[in-house]
Amino acid sequence: MALPILKSTVACADFSKTVQPYISQLNGLPQQIYQSATKPADLKELYLNTNPLVSAFAFSLFLVPMFLVLSEINRNYSQVDRAWSLLPTVYNLHYVAYGHAKGLPTQRLNSLAIISVIWSTRLSFNYWRKGGYQIGSEDYRWEILRKYINPPLFFIFNVLFISLAQSVRMALIHAVQHVLLFSITMPTYILLLTSPLVKADMTDIIFSQFILAFIFLAFTADQQQWDFHSAKHSYQRTAKVPPGSQFSARDLDRGFLTKGLWSFSRHPNFLAEQSVWVTLYLWSCWITQTSYNWSGVGAVAYLILFQASTWFTESVTGKKYPDYKTYQKRVGMFVPSLFGGGIGDFNDDEPGKKEK
């Protein structure tokens, strides 16, 4: 049996009942897929007879060597970045499709699928307009890392962090980025298990609205940053502030955005992004009437990843822009600071504005 028989919502969050009994399915899965590869009916039967969490995890493991080989052939370590905005939605749609195939109530999961597609659209669009999908494009941080790590060690780093961690974030820190994109969607598996026990209600609408609000917040932060950098690049080319720009010459000379949402948080887009997946996890806790459950490992790993990557990004930014340390003291990294000397437009250091 691919799904456990559960009589309570609390049991849906029990690792020993919902995950542990199915781990052994991983062992023979590759051979079964190989034997059924040319038989669609057999593949469908195998899909339905395999626990959906196991099949999702197996897929994430399948992706690891693919991204590793691509990154080494192209000497480009942003291969997973191109799929970052897509893979979590692939996993969520997988759970929805499985629920439909099994004849389970899917109203809650259908809503989540739509939200997940919106999340992917927003993130993919922002990555696209920054040139992320262009041939040869690579996150600037990899080039910086290569300067500090010799080639043999960087290959090991690529195996243990870049390839493994970004495709599963997808469940285990050991696989850090691949096992990380899978793991943030594990609460969806719990929502799938609760579907026969709990009908969709107003609570589901509330959680859905919160996630949508965080996606909109991230989009707004992205747009503000895009507007700023567009104005800055024009200013650098022409030595003139673009007509109608909301930014002053002082803003653009500073080099980094401090207005709008960025006056309350140094990374409002990151705050919103993390909140999306934390909210999904809290949704699984609410519906199973538990204070916490095993699927939270993905959200926790995601938070840790953002803490580490943001620290590295800011270490680079701080060296590039002299005013950034002042900005760090005044504005919180993610959550608005209560003791940072005041938030606002960060322009009280401009001529004509004196501190009282």
Task: Describe this structure as you would to a colleague.
The protein has 356 residues and is mostly helical. Helices cover 64% and strands 0% of the residues. The protein contains 16 helices and no strands. It has helices at 15-18, 25-36, 40-49, 52-74, 81-84, 87-101, 107-129, 140-148, 151-168, 178-183, 186-194, 202-238, 249-254, 268-288, 296-320, 324-330. Helix 11 (186-194) runs parallel beside helix 14. The N and C termini lie far apart (71 Å). Mean pLDDT is 86; it is low at 166-174.
Number of strands: 0
* Averaged pLDDT: 86
Elements, N to C (H/E): HHHHHHHHHHHHHHHH
Quaternary organization:
single chain
Q: Label the structural class.
A: mainly alpha
Q: Using only CA atoms, what is the Rg?
A: 23 Å
Please bin the fraction of helical residues.
55-70%
Task: Provide a brief overview of the structure.
The protein has 356 residues and is mainly α.
Question: What's the layout of helices and strands?
Answer:
Blueprint: H1 15-18, H2 25-36, H3 40-49, H4 52-74, H5 81-84, H6 87-101, H7 107-129, H8 140-148, H9 151-168, H10 178-183, H11 186-194, H12 202-238, H13 249-254, H14 268-288, H15 296-320, H16 324-330
List keywords for this structure.
16 helices, 356 residues, mainly alpha
